[in-house]
Amino acid sequence: MKKILAIHTGGTISMSQDDSGEVVQNEKNPIANQDNLLGRNIKIVNEELFNLPSPHITPKVMLKIVKRIKEAEDEGYYGVVVTHGTDTLEETAYFLDLTLKNDMPVVVTGAMRSSNEIGSDGLYNLLNAAATAASEDAKGKGVLVVMNDEIHTARYVTKTHTTNVATFRTPTFGPIGIISKHHPSFFQELIQSEVVDINNVVDGVYLIKGFAGMDGTLFEALDNETTKGLVIEGLGAGNLPPATLPAIQKLLKRHIPIILVSRCINGVAQDIYAYHGGGIELQDMGLTICHGLNGQKARIKLIVGLSAGKSGQELARFMGNAIS
């Protein structure tokens, strides 16, 4: 019998509506009592590590989840499922992907409807995630996200709708597998990513979104010794209004690493345009273009890279590598 550890961290999947119709945390997770997957040879062992809404999750909490997963491997578990609130699920999943070796399947899941709602998806997603974590084919594919009968990579999946159960999508690339009657099937494979071992996480890494008419005000607010890194969601393929450049240059003079991604939901940031504020100039200034990641994922990657002691060209290669 394959033993799968289900690490519960909170979120809608563990919540219920109260008498006023508001969704609140339960003292006891209502789905943390599953121990057998539909009569199959899979044993689910439940552990309530946290009971946190996903906006309460921090990189320090993510690191604690990493440490528990490493212990689970030493304890002989075949795979691990992490249940999580959906608002920051993609960030935790990618943090795990960057810091865990692919020695055993790790699957992150959640729910868009609380446990007492009609059509609640929590238990269904948990069972699908456990079936995926028990699959031989899930090994070596990095951390996976299973929601709504689809299997996504932690690297590229993102939440695209505030309430729809089909909210988790992988723009540009699509899911790598599907699930039918709790049986996972894979049709694609992700290129191996670089895994970094860290014991702590740095603070002071920020994310700013570009917009029309933007000036240097927000960047000037980060011009201090506590700022360790910055990710900018640029316009289009990775461009910024010219009025932002003097303030950005001051940050670069402080040797603060600045990573450039696109604010677009599809496509990747590229150094295409040579006009003032275009991607070519930004790259020449010293910004690192991160290919394929959205802003929140790039920030997680920058935190991991800085926490591992990477700097200069080593950090730039880590952040700019399109396959990780």
Write structural notes for this entry:
This protein has helices at residues 59-74, 89-99, 122-133, 217-221, 245-253, 279-285, 295-307, 312-320, and strands spanning 2-8, 15-17, 23-25, 42-48, 79-83, 106-109, 144-147, 150-153, 158-159, 168-169, 177-180, 183-186, 205-209, 229-234, 258-262, 288-289. It starts with a strand and ends with a helix. It has an 8-stranded mixed sheet with strand order 4-1-5-6-7-8-11-12. It is 25% helix and 21% strand.
Task: List the keywords.
eight-stranded mixed β-sheet, four-stranded parallel β-sheet, elongated, hydrolase, Asparaginase/glutaminase_AS2
Element layout with pairings:
Blueprint: E1 2-8, E2 15-17, E3 23-25, E4 42-48, H1 59-74, E5 79-83, H2 89-99, E6 106-109, H3 122-133, E7 144-147, E8 150-153, E9 158-159, E10 168-169, E11 177-180, E12 183-186, E13 205-209, H4 217-221, E14 229-234, H5 245-253, E15 258-262, H6 279-285, E16 288-289, H7 295-307, H8 312-320
Parallel strand pairs: 1-4, 1-5, 5-6, 6-7, 13-14, 14-15, 15-16
Antiparallel strand pairs: 2-3, 7-8, 8-11, 9-10, 11-12
Helix pairs in contact: 1-2, 2-7
